[in-house]
Amino acid sequence: SRWYQRRVRGTPSYPLGDHDAIATIRRQLDVDVMISGHTHKLEAYEKDGKFYINPGSVTGAYSAIERDPVPAFILMDIQSNSLVTYVYSLANEEMEVKKIEFKKGGCSKGRINKV
User: Fold this and answer.
1) In what order do the strands lie in the sheet with 72-79?
2) Cα(30)–Cα(6) distance, rounded to whole angstroms?
3) Helical H runs in 1-115?
4) CB count, 10 Å around CB of 99?
5) Alpha-carbon span 73 to 44, nearest angstrom
6) What is the C-alpha to C-alpha distance for residues 60 and 39, in angstroms, rounded to an integer?
7) pLDDT digits (tens, 9 = 90+) for 63-92
8) Hey, CA dihedral for 101, 78, 36, 75, is it positive or negative?
């Protein structure tokens, strides 16, 4: 089955990073995966059979929302009905890599957060 994706500049949610506001935007866009940002807070979670990810901040820059950000970035691999996300983060001066698998229609393995 086909993945529905759409790119938008910025995440116009208020309050910034609010999961319910981001879910509303995802429904309006009618996408399977919602990538948001601007909070500098690394998050990946499944909600209502859809996948949400905020890659955080690659530099670990301070923000008003996340006062102790962890430098992080993601790589995504989409094939057929499977999305594999590799989350790279720097914790205690050690690079950590986590693998999160999401199947279209739900069922994640290796999630960072679940809402």
Assistant:
1) 72-79, 82-91, 94-103, 108-109
2) 9
3) 19-29
4) 11
5) 12
6) 11
7) 777 778 889 999 999 888 889 999 999 988
8) positive
